[in-house]
Protein: Pentatricopeptide repeat-containing protein
Amino acid sequence: MALLRQRVQLLVSASVNMFSQLHVPISQSIISTEPKSDLHINAICDSFRRGLSWDRLSKQFKSVELNNSIVEKVLLELKEPIDAKGALGFFHWSAQTKYYQHNIWSYCITIHILVRAQLLIDARVLIESVLKKCVEDASKFSVVDSLLAIYKVVVSTPLVFDLLVQAYAKLRMFEVAFDVCCYLEENGFCLSLISFNTLLHVVEKSDKNYLVWSIYEHMLQKRSYPNKETIRTLINALCKEGKLQIYVDVLDRIHGKRCSPSVIVNTSLLFRIIEERRIEEGMVLLKRMLQKSMILDTIAYSLIVYAKVNLGNLEYALEVYEEMLNRGFTSNSFVYTSFIGAYCREGNIEKANWLMQEMEKAGLKPYEETYNVLIEGCAKAHRVEESLIFCEKMMERGLVPSCSAFNEMIGKLCEAGAGDAEQANVLLTLVLDKGCLPNEITYSHLIAGFAKQGKIQEVLKLYYEMENRSISPPLLVFKSLLKSLCQCGKLHEADKYLRIMKNCSLVPDVDIYGLLIISNFEKGNKKRAIQLYNEMDSQGLKPSYSFFFGATMEND
Structure:
């Protein structure tokens, strides 16, 4: 027993600096023992080894005042698996009979002892108890730090850290669980696949689905590879996000046939990383997946092309594409669309058109994204007729343009000149029938187009349509509406929509005030013009219209 005390003394002394930083109570008497307390400690340990009843223990040690030092020493004396039930008995007896308030240190010693002795149900109960006890602690690592510090003293097992993370998951403390997981790995401990699966399963059932993919990425980085349970959870996560069919379709275009659930999951993770522009991390993970046959070669090549195109490195993407073809892999509509999108963004519409024709000659079908990048690219290059042709072809195939591509096209149409706002409005009716959902930008373009033509009834009709669709009109819509009303001389109506605009928490800018002031001044409503001018001035807006001052002076 003296040898055991000497060993504990040396180990705790070596860790004393660590505990002082963690604010974990370390009784001074663990380091410098007192003979009298040693007798009490020996007697208590012997009594618990003999399995005495709590009544006898309470009578026998009635005069003993328990403190941190005595409790910790007793637990350390009972740290061997053969004494684990005695240690647990002492833990509860001291709390319930002697009213001792256990701290993190005594909890963690007991937890280690129980785990080492495979008394896992009892260990889980204590872990959950100490986590609830420490939930308000400033440091989220207080429990794990204590477990790490006492780990060697109790000659524990890594299983204790798996149980810790599983307990965090059960208590729905997901972010802390993941942070602790990363922290443990920094300290040389890696969780088991069971713990990762437990954490993934619980997180997937919560409202923090985004965390599922961070955990899975971390697993792969640490070379902890998934099993069927992992993949099942991640497929459920994709379903919950409504993205499973999206990735299935992408893989169908790349590979030409249905892929396994594990390939779907791994591809979706790589897509997320690439779309976050963490290209280098994505490529490292892709290489690891290839080494473990977790993804197919043709998919890997296509994703590398996609990643490099996203980075704007078109030259390198073409080199990878050539290598892909030289190795016997055929091209696919996904790769073609990646290149078409890149050329459209560069404004090289001729090259994009050529690739589109080559793609169709190869028997590959363009899909939504192919048409969308062409519609948007042509519109941005002011090639509105070509944009309209691609939109028409797309709808003939039963596909619907994206809202952003459609907005770009009708925006350019409405800018083009007289009559084109009507054509844009007809197109809106067509895409609405196909299921496209317009947004405030769609209506802003159309209303601005009709406002330029002075067609106030069309402007108002579109405004009311926005209201019926519960789309909040932005400042640009009100500006176009007020301009149309002022052009028609409907100044009372303009004041009405100015009030509505303010009620929508939109602040009129100097252009809107200027428009209303000029219109009122020209109509002879000098009093209203001055009122609007003073309102504008009170908001710190300074116009450049010199005649405002003349109007004020004339009124005076």
Summary: The CA atoms of residues 148 and 219 lie 21 Å apart. Residues 1-33, 549-556 have pLDDT under 50 and may be disordered. The two ends are 105 Å apart (CA to CA). DSSP finds 32 helices and no strands in the chain.
